[in-house]
Design goal:
By secondary structure, this protein is mainly α. It has helices spanning 4-16, 19-26, 30-44, 59-79; strands spanning 49-50, 56-57. 15% of the residues are buried.
C-alpha cells in the first residue's frame, strides 16, 4: 500500500540527493529510509533513483516528483483546520478539517455532508 511516508521519503531524497540528509529531513535513520524507498519502487514497479556516484532521479522518478509534491500538499491542506467563521452557502460554519459535518447555529451537527 502506498503511504504518505513513502511520498515524504521520495520527495526528500529527490530534493536532498543524499540518503543521510533525506533521512534527517524526514526524522528517521538511513536504513528505514532505504527500506521505504525500496518498498515504494516495488509498489510502483520502477526504479526511481540511480544510485551510482550519488543519488539522482531516473526518468520515472522525475515524472513522479510533481505528482508526489502535489499529493503531499493536498494532504497537508486536509489537515489544516478551517476557521468556524468560514461560512457555507447555507450560512453554516465549519469546524475541523474540510469535509467535516457543518455546525448548526446552536453548535450541534447540522446533518450529513452534502
Amino acid at each position: 500500500m502506498l503511504t504518505e511516508r513513502h511520498l515524504e521519503i521520495f520527495v526528500a531524497l529527490a530534493e536532498e540527493e543524499h540518503f543521510g540528509a533525506a533521512a534527517q529531513r524526514v526524522g528517521i535513520t538511513q536504513p528505514p529510509l532505504s527500506q521505504g524507498l525500496r518498498r515504494l519502487e516495488a509498489l510502483l514497479g520502477v526504479r526511481l533513483f540511480e544510485r551510482e556516484r550519488g543519488v539522482f532521479l531516473t526518468e520515472e522518478g522525475a515524472l513522479l516528483l510533481p505528482h508526489a509534491r502535489r499529493a503531499l500538499a493536498a494532504l497537508a491542506e486536509l489537515r489544516r483546520p478551517v476557521p468556524v467563521s468560514t461560512r457555507t452557502a447555507a450560512g453554516r460554519g465549519w469546524a475541523g478539517a474540510r469535509g467535516a459535518a457543518p455546525l448548526a447555529a446552536d453548535g450541534g451537527r447540522a446533518g450529513p455532508c452534502r
